[in-house]
Amino acid sequence: MFLTNIAYASEESHSAIQVVFSIGPVEITSEIITMWAVMLLVTIVCYLGTRNLKRIPSGLQNVLEYGVSTLQSFFADLMGEKRAKQFLPMLMTFFILILCSNYSGVLPLAGEHIPGYKPPTSNVSVTAGFAIVVFFSVIIFGIKAKGLGYFKHFVEPIVILLPINILEQFTRPLSLALRLYGSVYGEEMVVASLASLIPLFLPIPMQVLGLLFGAIQAFVFTLLAAMYIEEATAVHH
């Protein structure tokens, strides 16, 4: 039943793919274009906030530094100051990209069949891409921190748990991908349904809740990624 649900979600996502144009064999979909727009926006904001750094920050630089310091302090409590600084660029990238992708679905006309505009995280292929990065990052960082001793945890506390521990490594990114996709896609479908019934006022409360849920889902994904990395890189003396 679980595998059937996954296949159904993948089929639904594939059927909803909007191909805008193609570059040879490569199809450029609405999700890709929206993701490009999100990355361009983030790049511009970061450039404007850091092009003239001041010792005493103000304006946009102050906002960016506050966000960085807040997330770093949070992850420092979870994985220690050293590892928080080491992994903050990747974790913060996850959070910002997912948050902006989620919020792009709250903008007017999102969810409608408009070529070139669709929330990236409403497609399971995008969320799976994020999850795959987490999967390989955990393994790579774990090996860098512990060497081949990283694989020791697969047979702990007893060897008989080896198949279960291996299965857990694959179900983690799967749950990350489906949780994020299900939340964004479900919210998008609910708002679209409400808009078809009462197009003026009824969808507004769901869109407001979408702002909250979008932030929560971005935070949960980043938090779980940080926990998996912390567990893989923790060295007990």
List the topology elements.
Elements: H1 2-15, E1 19-23, E2 26-29, H2 30-50, H3 59-79, H4 81-103, H5 124-146, H6 162-197, H7 203-233
Antiparallel strand pairs: 1-2
Helix pairs in contact: 2-3, 2-4, 3-4, 4-7, 5-6, 5-7, 6-7
Describe what you observe in this structure.
The chain has helices at 2-15, 30-50, 59-79, 81-103, 124-146, 162-197, 203-233; strands spanning 19-23, 26-29. The protein contains 7 helices and 2 strands; from the N terminus they run H-E-E-H-H-H-H-H-H. Helix 5 packs antiparallel against helix 6. The protein has one domain. The protein starts with a helix and ends with a helix. It is mainly alpha-helical. Strand 1 (19-23) and strand 2 form a beta hairpin.
Classify the secondary structure makeup into a structural class: mainly alpha
Determine the mean pLDDT: 80
| Number of separate domains | 1
The helix-strand sequence is: HEEHHHHHH
End-to-end Cα distance, whole Å, is 43 Å
Please tell me what the overall shape is.
Answer: globular
Radius of gyration: 20 Å
Number of strands: 2
The spatial strand order of the largest sheet comes to 1-2
| Poorly predicted residue ranges | 1-15
Which band does the percent of strand residues land in?
A: under 5%
Helical coverage, percent range: over 70%
